[in-house]
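Exercise 7 asks you to align residues with tokens for two separate proteins.
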Amino acid sequence: VQLQASGGGLVQAGGSLRLSCAASGRTFSSYAVGWFRQAPGKERQFVAAINYSGRSTYYADSVKGRFTISRNSVENTVYLQMNSLEPEDTAVYYCAARGYSLSYYPYDYNYWGQGTLVTVSS
């Protein structure tokens, strides 16, 4: 499966962005999808994940209550709605896919998108 992440940009603190992860190549509905981020000089960090059906989600404590992950099976797309953005959210955001169940470990994911840059100014 090929993944294309988009929706990043520059936003002021307190603002919102919606990231999209569009899939092609295989039936996306059998894959769990995770969002990860990587700031300069830091390790890749788990942000949120959703299982294949969309009924189960998981969030990092740092984004809980501010970010929402969802999926649209018809559009073959997973979204990450990011509200109340903080400068600490600045990073390249990646989406990744694996079979069925969600995980918060990057090494569990088989397919990765190219990343989209989110910059939050103070």
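Second protein for Exercise 7:
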Amino acid sequence: QVQLVESGGGLVQAGGSLRLSCAASGLSFSTLVMGWFRQAPGKDREFVSCITLSAGTTYSADSVKGRFTISRDNDKNTVWLQMNSLKPEDTAVYYCASGRLCARFRSGYDYWGRGTQVTVSS
């Protein structure tokens, strides 16, 4: 059974940094990518970034390019999201996901964590 557990969220001032972690267990051979999504109050869940587990190729939403960096350690079954230069509009619950396709849409992912809250104050 796949389990994804996010951690590292919190309250930070605008311009600050946070590092989110996603610890995975039970991943199968069909798991090819890990991703991060976020959902702000009253809004749809949106793609943030993803990484292929084999080559480490990354893709990110335009809104976070140059500020957020996704990385992984396959031996530790962990994925991180380093978030710098945070803005109030980055406030959301951040979700880790695993799946088959490094995609911007949710259907590319099979399993989801419960999320971690990130709040950026102005």
